């Protein structure tokens, strides 16, 4: 027995409110620029109340990163080694674009951490992320070697997919400032463009 009491409904709701507020603040300001006062204000709670649920800024950031990494890696995990190679890679591209559309704050949270040298998540990058990328890079390399897709460097292909999809979340202000889309209509255009580009690059 751990001795820990289950959280009440109010405690669970408050924890979720705090993490949602922290996500807003971290995604805007990065870990270094975020403060407990900012998070408390965003959450509509006092700072002591905030610290009752999370003892530090680090603990909030880590809780968000742990949840993010689980969801963030799912699209790559879904790449099926037994599927049609081009279709599997294109499907991964589109899943990543959908995540940029649906979870822009999470994307910016991750991007801000990376820009700052990944001090709080390097263990994740060198652990589960690296292991998964190595696994899927080996799958893509096999597809190249067996003549199912054009010759590409598997790692740089994956990096390019990250760059061309997460860009729409991480640089949202720039995109909107240049093309002034109606709502999220530019994601539909991006979907068509990226699917065409990767199909042409990969197909024999």
Ordered list of secondary-structure elements with their pairings:
Layout: H1 9-33, H2 36-43, H3 47-53, H4 57-77, H5 85-102, H6 104-115, H7 122-145, H8 154-170, H9 172-179, H10 185-202
Helix pairs in contact: 1-2, 1-4, 1-6, 4-7, 5-8, 5-10, 6-8
What does this structure look like?
- The structure is a single chain.
- By secondary structure, the protein is mainly α.
- The protein is 77% helix and 0% strand.
- It has 10 helices and no strands.
- Helix 1 (9-33) crosses helix 2, helix 1 (9-33) packs across helix 4 (57-77) and helix 1 (9-33) crosses helix 6.
- The protein is globular.
- The relative contact order is 0.11.
Provide a concise account of the structure shown:
This protein has 204 residues and is mostly helical.
Strand portion:
under 5%
Provide a count of the helices.
Answer: 10
> Measured on Cα atoms, how large is the radius of gyration?
20 Å
Distance between the termini: 59 Å
Q: Would you report the number of β strands?
A: 0
List keywords for this structure.
mainly alpha, disordered N terminus, 10 helices
